[in-house]
Amino acid sequence: MSYISDQMSQRQLASDRGAAHAPVTMADLERGDRARVVSYGDDVAASTVRRLFDLGIVPGAEVEMVRRAPLRDPVIFRVADYEIALRSAEARCIRVDLAT
Amino acid sequence: MTGHHHGGGSVADTAGLRRFAVVGSPNSGKTTLFNALTGLHAKTGNYPGVTVARFEGTMRLGDQTVAVEDLPGTYSLDPISPDEQIVVDVLDTKHHADGVETPDALLVLLDATTLRRSLGLLAQMLQTELPICVVLTFTDDLTRRHGRLDTAALSRALGVPVVAVANGQRNAVSALRQAMSDVDSWSSPVVPPPTATAEVTAWVESVLIAADYQVPDVDVRTRRIDAVLLHPVLGTAIFVMTMFVFFQTIFTVAAPLQDYVEQFFGWLGELVAMWVPIPWLSAFLSEAVIGGVGGVLVFLPQIMLLFVLIALLEGTGYMARAAFLMDRVMAPAGLEGRAFVALLSSVACAIPGIMATRSLPSAKDRLATIMGVPLITCSARLPVYILLIGMLFDSADRVGPFSAQGLVMFALYLFGAISALTVAAIFKRLTAGTGPVLPFYMEMPPYQMPRLQSVAAAVTTAATAFLRKVTSIILATTVMLWVLLNLPPRSDAELAAASVDTSDDAAVSAFVIDHSYAASIGRAVEPVFDPLGFDWRINVGILSSLAAREVFVATLGQVAAAQNPDEPRDSLAKMRVETGPDAGRLLFDPPTIAALLVFFVYALQCMSTVAVMRRETGTWRWPALAWVYMFVVAWLMALLAHTVVASIR
Fold first, then answer.
1. Tens digits of per-residue pLDDT, B394-416?
2. Fewest beta carbons less than 10 Å away: which of B173, B441, B499, B509?
3. Structural domains of chain A ordered from first start
């Protein structure tokens, strides 16, 4: 591991433990829904959280559900001004707030 | 998925030159810019890949020559896949890995339409403390979609030079060339940007405001195309049609071009017969060199066409959609959509397919895909399939509106794909429970017109790699085979003793081949292949094809040409089994052809693939395992095919 990647892998992102029961996640969004990213799930691996952050899925960012694949999964979202496909498993890791 | 390099050759000797590295996220236009900067001076690595191998080129800046390196696309310097690790290794100035040269300066590509995300990567790049020049790409898209950006203000906010490049065309990079020749005066930020997550987000926001950034509108064109191409019913139908047309095109369009190549070698053969008086030399040239190499070169048009189609699918952005549509289909095999791209690249050649697995973050996925990739019908199988299918069906045979030949070919491709997925699923299951579960994500880039230069680059490098293969491993194998097929020489007395008419050239060469070293080897392995209906001649072909599949065609060509030099194809079709209980039956009868086709679907007859598997997995264990399992499956499935076809006749 290099100096830079060491430094990058030590980044911390808070997950809000003990949040409201059954929080809304990106996987719950229907086509055309817009929401704001709140936090990441409690049991999500730290490396996954850091990657989601690097992809622009950061707390405070607005996400829009664009469309589902013909077989329901994966799902295309618009976030940080571009479109990205996530599987439901990943989308469930991202808590969102629908009231915008 | 913007890469268009395929091919061989060694990286140019760039030691001592000033080095620039092109870095940026996938789809940021790196490869296009790299092609525009280095032009025809680009040298690809030893093996092809889709921007996952390292590519290097040189360019002139005034009176000096500089080296430019195209690094794999990455979203972060916090790597989760092998190709992202390469970027970190190259950029690491502090602990240096052996054999990796650190660049002297970085050209960091930022897609102007996704600036918010791209700036996060730039913040990480600035931590390297290497001189950085920001290259803004897709600024024409930004304007078209009513976005706005003040380049000079962005440069002030970042503290590094910023150059806008509207598109990858040569005249658009002159400002960048200017900046590159002035690298010593590049400014650097007084304080590097923060690394803590909340601060980075705030820093990005402040830079965007300072640069007067106006987010571009949603790309209406892409949304409209996606509404059709990703439509549940329509999109799926178009996907299946695209795949079908893909394979039909390779056949129908290439056929007339192949005829020209064939005619050229026929003409060359006549010249040799006319001008080379020494009989053995004339035979060597016409059989080993022209017959062997020419027989394989006939497939150059098809291979080039295949790479054109793949480059078009990638260049337009449809490949990402294909991966999106196929993701759920790949899931039962434990794989993701990007593995589909690796598998589709393998239609050209297993080597770029194996290389493309570097974009898969999960080591388990990589291994499972690598083990399945060699089963995908590659272009090296094409010559063999075409030859054998041609003996099975006439080109005029139809099944409904489709050509019977094309249909069998489509079935073989489908067969290979299903087998590859099955194998991948088995290996995924075997390695289950080890290693972390990595996230799946895939960017959907806007649709674009494919760039002619990128398509041309992909095709030329593919053609060069094929020609190199033909003039090295294939030529060597055919020459060796010719020697084995023609030794030991027979004296007239021996021929007379065997009551061979010495005035009949065809009869003499048939006798020589029949009693050659190659024949002895072919007969020695007969017990293994006898149940499949193969005789010693096919066995010699199979053994020679272990070096490269195409050699099979060349070998049969040599054997056939010896008997009837004018009509080798005709003589193949009329060959009969010489000995044993089946003596007299046509050698290439439908059960045997079916067995051969199926054998070629499964067997790992490619030294280059074995070598790349060794390199990519770091051990001989996986290639050895792959070779053995594929041979066993090939034999069993060929026996099954032989039995089934024999029983329904």
1. 777 777 777 788 888 888 988 99
2. B499
3. 23-97 (2.30.30.90)
